[in-house]
Amino acid sequence: MAQPKLASTAVALSAALALAVGAPSAARATRDQIIYSFTGGADGSAPHARLTSDKAGNLYGTTSADGRGYGTVFEYATKGGFATLYTFNNGTDGAYANGVTYDEASGNLFGTARQGGANGKGVIFKLTPKGALTVLHAFAGTDGDAPSTRLTRDTLGNFYGAASAGGDLTCFGGEGCGVIFKLAADGTYSVLHKFSGGADGSFPSGRLSKESDGDLVGVTNEGGDLGCGNGNGCGTVFRVTPTGKFHVLHTFTGVGSMGFPAGGVAEDSRGNIYGTVGGAREGNPDFVFKIARNGTYTVLHSFTGADGFDPFGDLLALQHGHMFYGTTSDGGKNDAGTVFRFKPDGSFHTVHTFRKRYDGANPYVGLTETSRGLYGTTDFGGSSYNCQYYYVNGCGTIYYLGPE
């Protein structure tokens, strides 16, 4: 099945393994330090999903692969202990998870897997702290296919997410252009919006951002203005309510900037929305953009390569939206990616440049904030180079960036 530009990257990473040794405690970690280096065993490799945390600061995440190639769910405890909570079998349980979301009320993890399941089109799952997995929904095509995002939870216990395909099967040669879905607290599944591949966009990508008014904001990787780019459109930024009312906030037209957004957006305290566009390796400019409450669109920063390429990860809003953090998967001094931050006025700073073996390489996902500081993952790099498939580039890391 054809995937959005970024989804194909994630699928290509699903063939490695891992197990770490001698990782220091998160509590003892210093700034810009590996706290876990994947090595090619039962813990998985290529952690291609943003971390989540509980109140105690324990970290949870997923890997794209394991010894059999289908990925894992893991925990990294505040005292420095790593544990593999679950290994996917590519059966009814799914394969290649997009990350997990911690639910404080139940202590369970909720997530999506983009393949496998009863219909082979992905699942929504629940995982208990003891590693018992329950499939809550198996995608069938018209209700979505290949879920592409980590789940977003509201205060009522409902979860929201996106699938990069399925829905309207008249779109994109019968494969569908994706959906926005809701899993209610009582387990009821519903589709909030089916993308048509036209003005509303196609192939939603990046986590949905829950705004201060309760609405959800996200991006599509293509669609919108079909005269843009490759003829399939250069993407959109959209807003959808919990009841399914849908509105396009911005359409990328290729005028002054190309498009193809991939990472999730973030909001400041005034309701302005910020996001990134990546694709420099394909000849498209990379930049940070802002959409004001009145709809005005502005490019805040254009990446040069020295400060990174391909900002594919979700943005993280800190200080009540007065500061934003993000990552680039490539570029920087060592061509291994960067961490950056910017303010609403556009002032930009490269926080960290990755050094491959020393602290990881190619962070395809955004950062997570805990009471101890900022954490993230890299798909490759790290101190362990004995991966079955990625021995040249390493199996990936969990890194600590320090307090914000």
Outline:
The chain has one helix at 5-12; strands at residues 33-37, 52-53, 59-63, 72-76, 82-87, 95-102, 109-115, 123-127, 133-138, 145-147, 152-153, 159-165, 179-183, 189-194, 202-210, 216-222, 236-240, 246-251, 266-267, 273-277, 287-291, 297-302, 316-318, 323-328, 338-342, 348-353, 368-370, 373-378, 397-402.
Describe the structure.
With 404 residues, this protein is mainly beta. The chain has one domain (5-402): TolB, C-terminal domain (Neuraminidase, 6 Propeller), CATH 2.120.10. It is 2% helix and 38% strand. The protein is built from 1 helix and 29 strands. It has one helix at residues 5-12; strands at 33-37, 52-53, 59-63, 72-76, 82-87, 95-102, 109-115, 123-127, 133-138, 145-147, 152-153, 159-165, 179-183, 189-194, 202-210, 216-222, 236-240, 246-251, 266-267, 273-277, 287-291, 297-302, 316-318, 323-328, 338-342, 348-353, 368-370, 373-378, 397-402. The strands form 7 sheets. Strands 10, 11, 12, 13 and 14 form a 5-stranded antiparallel β-sheet that branches. A 4-stranded antiparallel β-sheet has the order 1-29-28-27, with no helix packed on it. Strand 21 and strand 22 form a beta hairpin. The longest helix has 8 residues, at 5-12. It starts with a helix and ends with a strand. Mean pLDDT is 87; it is low at 1-30.
